[in-house]
Task: inverse folding
């Protein structure tokens, strides 16, 4: 299985690892079949994601996609984060092997899950904004 230089870089030197103690939104998604679990923490300031951290238990591709996803939304408006697709994460990493695409879906869903939590904490129904958070398939 061949990984791009970017995947290897984000796996070896993941960005934004850790937790945010007073996070405004926390999301966790997992795939029981492959054992990957991702937890995302968001700090949101006036509609901008001022900080984002993640903890991922899983394969190298899962760590790399989490890392890249956080890089793509940090400093961006919440609206941009809502539009982030797993395809954008894959492209930013210069591709992923087909069997690892589910990792990028996990990263997208983890962000949506954290945003959903953020809206819920604000007393806003997240479903119309974030949509349904599905369990990724293999």
Result:
């Amino acid at each position: 299985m061949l990984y791009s230089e970017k995947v290897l870089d984000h796996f070896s030197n993941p960005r934004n690892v850790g937790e945010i103690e007073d996070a405004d939104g926390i999301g966790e998604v997992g795939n029981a079949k492959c054992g990957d679990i991702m937890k995302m923490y968001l700090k949101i300031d006036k509609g901008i994601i001022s900080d984002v951290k993640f903890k991922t238990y899983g394969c190298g591709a899962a760590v790399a996609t989490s890392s890249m996803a956080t890089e793509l939304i940090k400093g961006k408006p919440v609206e941009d984060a809502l539009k982030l697709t797993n395809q954008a994460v894959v492209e930013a990493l210069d591709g992923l092997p087909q069997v690892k695409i589910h990792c990028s879906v996990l990263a997208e869903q983890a962000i949506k899950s954290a945003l959903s939590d953020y809206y819920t904490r604000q007393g806003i129904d997240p479903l119309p904004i974030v949509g349904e958070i599905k369990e990724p398939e293999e």
Remarks:
- Residues 101-121 form the longest helix (21 residues).
- The longest strand covers residues 36-45.
- The two ends are 17 Å apart (CA to CA).
- Strands lie at 25-31, 36-45, 48-57.
